[in-house]
Amino acid sequence: MRVGERIDLLRVRRFTTRCTLLFLIGAVAACHRPQVASVLTPAPRRVVLRHVAVLDVAAGERITDRDVLVEDEQIRAVVKSGALPPLRDAQEIDGAGATLLPGLIDLHAHTGINPAPPSLNAFPDPAANLAAYLYCGVTTVVDLGGLAPDVIERRDRVAAGKLLGPTLYVAGPVLTVRGGHPVHVLQMMLPFWLRWYAIPRYVVQVDDAPQAAAAAERIADMHVDFLKVIVDRIPREAPRLDTQELTAAVTAARGRGLRALAHIGTTQDAIDAAQAGVAAWAHVVYRERIADEQIATLAAFKIPMVPTIVGFEALASAGQKGRQATRLERETVPSAVLAAFDEPARDPEAAAFAEDSARFLQTQRQNWRDNVRRLHAAGVVMLAGSDMQTGVFPGAGLHRELGYLKEAGLSEIEVIRAATIDAARFLEAKDDPDFGIVAPGKRADLLLVDGNPLDDLGNLDHIRAVMVRGMPVERVALTN
What we know:
The chain is an alpha/beta fold. It has helices at 3-30, 126-135, 150-159, 183-189, 192-202, 209-221, 243-255, 267-276, 292-299, 309-316, 327-332, 335-339, 348-377, 396-407, 412-418, 421-428, and strands spanning 37-39, 46-56, 61-71, 74-80, 90-94, 98-102, 104-109, 138-143, 167-170, 174-177, 203-206, 226-231, 259-264, 280-281, 446-450, 463-468, 471-475. A hairpin with a 2-residue loop joins strand 16 and strand 17 (471-475).
């Protein structure tokens, strides 16, 4: 190696080291953001909720005046109030005037990103994200795309009790065609010195069917819970997996006991994904109105859909001022972050892309709502997911999604089922899941809210108490 080459190499190493240090400093600083949820240490072994109305999400009935005993991580008893004697070693929670329902489930998240506006250049804070989910009563989350092995280690730390958060399921890196979504988006979002590290850990790109099958097996070897495949074009001229590549990936994953979920955009995307054997659609068809004759075609596949309307609404609103924060957003998101949505993006290329996407999505708003309504009426099971991203905050974003599902034609109990028992049934692939319902023997993931959410879905925002795996959550709202 010549002297000049050595000097150049040294400069590159110094630059890389400096950038890495800046990244680490930012990451450490992010970890000191205020946490909105914690648990008592040690957690009480027993908890009794007195005089609550229990929402039986399977039957759609609200059963009043009940006492619920939680011991360790399980619901031990649900009895008429007064039937449980006082327990001196138990923590008691007054549930008078409130409704107890299962903790909510978000089937589409990205726990390793920061949902703040791009103008802030904010570093991710996964611990703060997980705490915000719990604050909002979300006790189970599916991370449908994250850096590997980071997201897998995060899941395992939560399971081992080393990190507070909802129970996590993860897909790890997403599988896409060479140059397909989300490569272009990541190239714009990430600083150039970080792209070389992040993109290969977030995305696995393939060129043909054999590579797709091999990639699916490599992802399965990471011990993930799902495979996510991208069957959409972002930007609109980008390539996407063809039917051979898609089928090869899904089949290989199934051979390893792994179900696939498909990010879709058009009706044909949805059909191709379903014919390849995916277990669910990760979005509603959002690029067009589904033709009437194709509604029955999609319904005949008998697979569920996670519409993520809130994610598309956030993208359609990009660059528009006057964003109104919800109650839960004000309680979990710093006011400076909420105010920053009125600031323009700093990167011209990213701003132009966001504006172009927003203009297109604004033309499709009624279409995706109408698609959800007609598919639901045809028998497609709708499941709740928020697709956490810029403007879609952890926990609070799912509550927004529930409101959008109601606007799209689901009843209150159908919306609640989409975020509880129906989501749990999908995750465990059985009709009688171990969580997602308030009943003896089930995992004690619980949400206590004021009033009756069957009368007013907005009552889900009025949270009195949260329990995750039998542990009462200490909720502390930010003082914005």
